[in-house]
Amino acid sequence: MNSVSVKGRWGVFLLILLVTMSYQLLLAFSITPLGVYEGCDSVVFKQMGLAMLQGKVPYLDLFDHKGPVVYFINAFSQWLIPGRWGLFLLFCVNIAAVTYIWWLIASLFVKSHNTIWPVVIGLFSYILVLSDGNLTEEWSLLPISYCLYVFVRHFVEGRAISSKAFFLMGISLGTVTFLRINNMAAPCCAVLVYTVYHLYKKTTVTPVNLMKSLVVMFLGWACFIAVCCLAIWVLYGSQGIEEMIYGTFTFNFEYMSAPAAVSTDRRRVYLFYGLTTLVILSLLFLKKRVTTLNVLIALCYVGSFVALGNKGWGNYFIIFAPVTVVATAYLYEASNRWQKALVFLMFFFLIPLKFYMANLGLHQDQVFYEEADKVIQKIPGEEKDRIWNSASFDGLAVLNRHGMTQANRVMLHFQLLISERLLNYEKESFDRINPVWVITAEPFQEKVSLSLDSIKVIHDYALQAVTGEGTGRRLYFYKRK
After folding, report:
1. Which pLDDT tens digit goes with each residue over 145-167?
2. 90 neighbors 97 (Cβ within 8 angstroms)
3. What's the pLDDT tens digit per position in 214-254?
4. Rounded distance, CA 313 to CA 18, Å?
5. Cα separations in angstroms, 143 against 21, 149, 256
6. What contacts 325, CB < 8 A, 6 or more positions away?
7. CB of 103 within 8 A of CB of 123?
8. In angstroms, rounded to a whole number, what is the distance separating the alpha carbons of residues 179 and 195?
9. CA 35/CA 19 separation, integer angstroms
10. Does the CA dihedral 427-431-433-439 come out positive or negative?
């Protein structure tokens, strides 16, 4: 790796960026300029960013339960280039930087063109669970990958980790804390292995040096958290801080304790990554026996599994990709060609299907959105900021296409079932806002959101339009009489 010139490294990065843009144009459904689909979690993040640009207070005027970093990213990208292009380009640069660090990791173990093998395996591991694009797991990949690279390089080359690197890793951990704290499992496991190794082996990294390094890392973490909190306080005051703490931490404790049903298709993701992890770890321990790196890799896998929780969403497994790059790079020289082929095929056999499904689904929402667009375009300008959305993701998608945000605070109905605080706020705010329009996914007479007074709504609002009847998803537009 050291023999590669600076010019050569820039060439590698630009090639990686070109490849990244090529496959993300097809697979990052919610942000690709080729498509119209707005996403699920992704459209929530886009709405939070848009709300910030419109002067609304995140978590208070519009609520979600992720850290503020992903909202800042979405706000910045939409400020930079409105629409899909700004977010798409920023997202591709992020994933290209991640892939470049994977190349650096692979270069620690594998020489010349063979570095492509572990990088490709890592990309396959990521692409298999790539759904919308613009998810917290994907924005977490860069800080996770950087932390793993620093620790792996230390164990491979015996190079001391500088205070600057520890500080940057602290910033990386702070970034993940304010994206989605569960994503931090692998770096935390690497810190644990590093600490235990030097304490047990009594190396030149003395306990005093170790403590200083961990303090520097903590300072990096604290600095990033402080800067984020300061930005929230400057923009939104003390109430902004209070609501951020509730949305980022308090609500998530309530969310974790809520019952969750894991569907069969999501169990398959657990099974697939469980089996691939088992095969990789088995080969590692058979070929390399018990080494420090094997322990680090195994602990990162186990820690990541534990951090997934019981919700079962496939995109959670995106955080496995950097660990898989480390594992397969370390395995490369010790495995024969048949074992390499086995690992490659485990991940590759679903990739053609992924691209086939992407090709089918890229424009499937066109009709659904076009019908809803016609209704939105007829709404007078003074009424567009008084639309109450009870249709969750589909309602958000239609509003986001027109640069609009909903009048009510809670975007996703399930959050009302978890938080009594949010439910009471929503009930009170309906009368206060007195919305002109209400968008629902089902007719009022059949099912009404818990946040609405059903008797009042049925009598005071009249159905104006129904869209998406031929698509399997419907939106009902009601206007106050």
Report:
1. 999 999 999 999 998 999 999 99
2. no
3. 999 999 999 999 999 999 999 999 999 999 999 999 998 88
4. 29
5. 20, 10, 24
6. 102, 105, 106, 118, 119, 121, 122, 145
7. no
8. 25
9. 19
10. positive
Tokens of 253: 């404790």
- Please state, as a whole number, how many other Cβ atoms lie within 10 Å of the Cβ of residue 376: 20
| Token pair listed for 115 | 């570095």
Which two structure tokens, joined as six digits, stand for 356? 């086939």
Classify 58 as helix, strand or coil: strand
Strand 387-390 and strand 437-440: pairing? Answer: parallel
**Cβ-contact 333, 215 below 8 angstroms:** no
Strand partners, 58: 62
Would you say 223 and 185 are in contact if contact means Cβ atoms under 8 Å apart?
no
> Could you tell me if 263 and 118 are in contact, meaning their C-beta atoms sit under 8 angstroms apart?
no
Residue 152 CA to residue 186 CA, distance in Å, equals 12
Q: Which H helix or E strand runs over 147?
A: helix 136-157
DSSP 8-state code for residue 112? G
Arithmetic mean of pLDDT, 406-423: 91
Name every residue whose Cβ is closer than 8 Å to that of residue 275 and which is 6 or more positions away in sequence.
346
> How many residues are there in the chain?
481
Residue whose pair of structure tokens reads 């005027």 in the numeric block: 61
Parallel, antiparallel or unpaired: strands 437-440 and 461-467? unpaired
